[in-house]
Amino acid sequence: METENLGIEDITTAENSKKSSDDLLEQFNKTARYDKNGDLEVAFPYNGNETRLADNYGVAYKRLQSLMVTLQKGNNQLPQYDKIIDDQLSAGYIEKVTPEMLKTTGPQYYIPHRAVFKEDSETTKVRIVLDASSHASGQLSLNDCLHAGTNMIKKIFGIPVRMRFSRYVIVADIEKAFHQVRLQEEFRNTTMFLWLKDPSNLVTFSNIQVYCFTRIPFGVSSSPFLLAAFIYYCLDSNPDSLNQMIKDNIYVDLSVYH
């Protein structure tokens, strides 16, 4: 049980937390911007440690070697994993990193990834999980360099309770919600990951293909905050009588109308 629910949380701590949350939301609103196509892009909320962020390439390379051993042992798992990456590339969620992109200033970071298998699933049997908390000994991870942000998720208990007071209920889900939020170009070099040009061949430096995310990746500590702030920003930028109901009844990427 959290002491804040009892009304005995330290006032200074609570006030500092509130100010921090307000500051992060203010920073989000100031840094969010529209690209030339009119799409809203967001910035990572760095906490000041990003200047000490190592690129984590060595760890990511070794983790890729281990991943390939696992995928090659499985039944048709490697083609499934490769297809997910191809699909993300086709959808524009990721892009290939060029040598010119690596010459830009600013922090760089390679995110290791692994496979999670769920054979009994009818839809997603293989899922890619990113590890943005990975780091070499004595180094920082990407998550160490980000504000996780305030928890903007509504208490789920109230949503189904309010639903019971209405005769009709509409439930809406944002498909691939995190991948709907575009990441500003100058932050993408901290979302790089390694894959293979030809997955049927060995893991060698010449066979490495580097990608980066163009959208906020699930697995980065600030992504839940960025998603929620993004939704609120879009609602506030487009006034409508339904907006407050959406804010009161949204849980991550699921919203209820009643």
UniProtKB/TrEMBL annotation:
Xref: InterPro entries: DNA/RNA_pol_sf (IPR043502), Rev_trsase/Diguanyl_cyclase (IPR043128), RT_dom (IPR000477)
Every Reverse transcriptase domain range: 164-241
Superkingdom, taxonomy of origin: Eukaryota
PANTHER family registered for this protein in UniProt: PHD-TYPE DOMAIN-CONTAINING PROTEIN, RIBONUCLEASE H
Name of this protein: Reverse transcriptase domain-containing protein
